[in-house]
Amino acid sequence: MNHQDKMGDRNRALPDPGARRKSGGFWEHFPHVADIGVRGFGVTLSESFEQAALALSSVVTSLETIHPKETIAVHCTAPNIELLFVDWLNAIVFEMATRKMLFCDFRVRIEGNELNGEARGEKICVKRHAPAAEVKGATLSELQVREEPDGLWLVQCIVDV
């Protein structure tokens, strides 16, 4: 089964041509009136969170321009898995803003409503990274966390740019 067959109707939402597969997971952007949607798919819930973080980073710059030089630990807790997803993305946004970094690789471990993760990246180099947008935060708009009938996990929300 190819990517197109597996995704079915979701590909009608203008899939990002930069979406990359990684360990069975992948990410894409989806259109929104004023902002942009980020979506991650994975064989596991953790992998879908990782893929959505890649989609978030790719809103700012091309992932291929980022080098995984530094590792930052990220810890989140939330009352439910949906809010944990939003908290995860907002933690990445916070780290990007306060450390002036961009990230290209993520590792996530979820146990109940607690997430322990890592973000790998480097300090922003405006000349090399040519940032296209600044992500202000993840929102509850179009928030979804669910297992699809094909067994893949889907996570998505709108990010404010």
Q: Determine the mean pLDDT.
A: 86
Please describe the biggest sheet, giving its number of strands, its sense, and whether it closes into a barrel: 6 strands, antiparallel
Give the % helix: 25-40%
CA radius of gyration: 15 Å
Strand proportion: 35-45%
Unreliable stretches:
1-22
Order of helices and strands: HEEEHEHEEHEEE
The beta-strand count equals 9
Description:
It is a single chain. This protein has 161 residues and is α+β, with helices and mostly antiparallel strands. It has one domain (3-160): Archease, Possible Chaperone, Chain: A, domain 1 (3-Layer(bab) Sandwich). The chain is built from four helices and nine strands, in the order H-E-E-E-H-E-H-E-E-H-E-E-E. The chain has helices at residues 3-7, 45-60, 81-99, 126-129, and strands at 21-22, 25-31, 36-42, 70-77, 101-111, 114-123, 137-138, 144-147, 153-160. The strands form two sheets. Strands 1, 2, 3, 7, 8 and 9 form a six-stranded antiparallel beta sheet that branches. The chain has a three-stranded antiparallel beta sheet with strand order 4-6-5. A hairpin with a 2-residue loop joins strand 5 and strand 6 (114-123). Helix 2 runs parallel beside helix 3. Residues 1-22 have low confidence and may be disordered.
